[in-house]
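[step 3/7] inverse_fold.run input=structure_tokens len=562
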């Protein structure tokens, strides 16, 4: 969990005031992993309690000195005048939402309270640790240690109740705001316009609400009306989650916002999970939301969807390794910038209409659609399964991306079948000393050839000026088969295949095939019109590579030594 400075909690040492409205602990007793949603206006305060179950602490807390309680919360919404809007509208900064927390003893005759702290929401978020000291009954402690029968009888926890008091304060003075303090701003007949709505939760093993400064989104590509993204490289955590919960339902969900609405969130509540969930989003991948119709995980996403939707599927092998979320956003406007927010649930419940949702919100990721429909995103191809990018749009399939994908796949399949026929003439299953290589197999050769073939027969579109891109006229593609069978609708820029795909094919296949790659020194023109190379100093991708990208080598210094 990474918390940037802007989202860390800040302690304010202020005196406690008499609360003008107290919600009793009977009505609002917090439960483990069950956050509370509440609303306040000046003159009101909430009081919550969380009781530590001493009998369940034995094994987890034996030989420790204190119980840790994780406290976290988010602001869902606040009065409009407190938002810092992007149009330079004046906003109020004389009110803040504060949580005071402390512990009280289980013995009603003991009025001592410990651990007083005050935390104020920043960017819509708080997180803190409450600590209650543990002592031990020596008799039971010795007995349990000798028998390893941890019953909890040895634990002596005097302060068993955590109290949380929530109120609106003046951040300059630390005083609690009263109705008379803001008479000029508040119309109490219209409560909805004056409420601060927040979520608060307590747990003994993790923060219910978290913020991560990474966007955790990898943008694969965009075209004129759609975008394709994946969740971050989190296959180990995701695989563990899927197997532990015996589910194919991913913990990740995506929210699409307009750039203008996302700016309001960024300036005010960018660390708040509940603000993202309850804000004016345009679409979401959550399945029970009426604004979108996501696909079932491990079911192929439909390319022929033109409405505003976010479809989601898991991509990976049958053993649930190397698993990622792939998310396809359709129905976007051309030449428009949008904002994406990815969230990852913590716990077992995930419903956009459920106030007990908990999880991690990642930072904003911006995407921009292309101006024209020259190229279209295709993926989930049968034979070129690694293709997931925008390719030149065929003239006959101007709006049918599924048919377009099938045409590209069919073109590659016909060429690949010829190659596999030739590969059958190689003694792949001979004794090791009779094979063409002791290190490579025919399966390695077939895969490397397929990756190379897909990258050259399915051009990846790029933008003018990008490193590794070359301009192609619509009937002068790199291969005449593309002009004949695909017939691009317009001129386009192609991101050249990585030279690594050619090197891997030459390395993995028998010498009988005569494969070779252009040399930058002896065939400079051929190299530059056929391939590019991985250059880590560039911010965008510099060549098109299909397969395991960890095999890519930064070849700038190899090809162009200083």
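[step 3/7] decode complete -> sequence:
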């Amino acid at each position: 969990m990474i918390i940037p400075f802007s989202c860390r909690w800040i302690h304010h040492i202020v005196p406690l005031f008499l609360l003008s409205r107290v919600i009793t602990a009977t009505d609002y007793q917090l439960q483990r992993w069950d956050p509370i949603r509440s609303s306040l206006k000046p003159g009101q305060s909430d009081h919550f309690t969380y009781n530590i179950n001493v009998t369940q602490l034995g094994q987890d807390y034996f030989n420790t000195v204190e119980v840790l309680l994780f406290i976290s919360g988010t602001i869902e919404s606040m009065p409009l005048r407190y938002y810092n809007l992007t149009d330079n509208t004046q906003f109020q900064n004389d009110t803040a939402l504060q949580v005071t927390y402390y512990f009280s003893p289980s013995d009603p005759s003991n009025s001592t309270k410990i651990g007083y702290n005050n935390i104020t929401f920043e960017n819509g978020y708080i997180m803190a640790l409450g600590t209650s000291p543990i002592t031990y009954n020596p008799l039971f402690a010795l007995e349990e240690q000798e028998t390893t029968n941890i019953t909890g009888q040895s634990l002596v926890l005097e302060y068993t109740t955590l109290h949380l008091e929530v109120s609106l304060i003046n951040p300059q003075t630390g005083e609690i705001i009263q109705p008379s303090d803001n008479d000029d701003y508040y119309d109490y007949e219209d409560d909805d316009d004056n409420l601060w709505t927040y979520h608060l939760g307590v747990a003994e093993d993790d923060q219910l609400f978290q913020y991560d400064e990474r966007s955790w989104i990898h943008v694969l590509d965009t075209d004129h009306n759609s975008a394709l993204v994946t969740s971050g490289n989190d296959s180990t955590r995701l695989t563990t989650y899927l197997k532990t919960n015996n589910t194919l339902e991913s913990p990740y969900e995506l929210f699409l916002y307009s750039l203008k609405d996302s700016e309001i969130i960024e300036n005010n509540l960018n660390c708040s999970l509940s603000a993202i969930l309850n804000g004016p989003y345009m679409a979401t991948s959550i399945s029970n939301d009426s604004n979108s119709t996501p696909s079932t995980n491990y079911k192929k996403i439909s390319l022929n969807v033109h409405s505003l939707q976010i479809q989601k599927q898991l991509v990976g092998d049958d053993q649930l390794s190397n698993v990622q979320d792939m998310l396809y956003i359709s129905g976007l406007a051309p030449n428009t910038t949008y904002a994406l927010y990815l969230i990852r649930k913590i716990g077992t419940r995930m419903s956009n209409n459920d106030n007990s949702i908990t999880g991690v919100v990642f930072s904003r990721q911006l995407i921009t659609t292309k101006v024209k429909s020259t190229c279209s995103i295709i993926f989930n191809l049968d034979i070129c399964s690694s293709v997931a990018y925008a390719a030149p749009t065929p003239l006959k399939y101007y709006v049918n991306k599924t048919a377009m994908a099938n045409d590209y796949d069919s073109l590659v399949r016909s060429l690949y079948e010829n190659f596999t026929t030739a590969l059958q003439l190689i003694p792949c299953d001979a004794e090791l000393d009779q094979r063409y290589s002791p290190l490579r197999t025919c399966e390695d050769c077939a895969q490397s050839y397929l990756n190379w073939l897909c990258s050259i027969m399915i051009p990846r579109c790029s933008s003018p000026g990008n490193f590794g891109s070359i301009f192609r006229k619509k009937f002068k593609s790199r291969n005449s088969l593309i002009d004949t069978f695909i017939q691009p609708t317009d001129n386009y820029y192609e991101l050249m295949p990585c030279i690594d795909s050619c090197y891997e094919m030459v390395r993995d296949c028998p010498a009988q095939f005569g494969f070779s790659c252009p040399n930058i020194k002896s065939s400079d023109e051929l190299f530059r019109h056929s391939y590019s190379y991985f250059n880590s100093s560039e911010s965008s991708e510099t060549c098109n590579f299909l397969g395991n990208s960890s095999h890519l080598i930064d070849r700038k210094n190899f090809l162009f030594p200083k």
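[step 4/7] annotate
The first strand starts at residue 10 and ends at 11.
The chain is about 20% helix and 25% strand.
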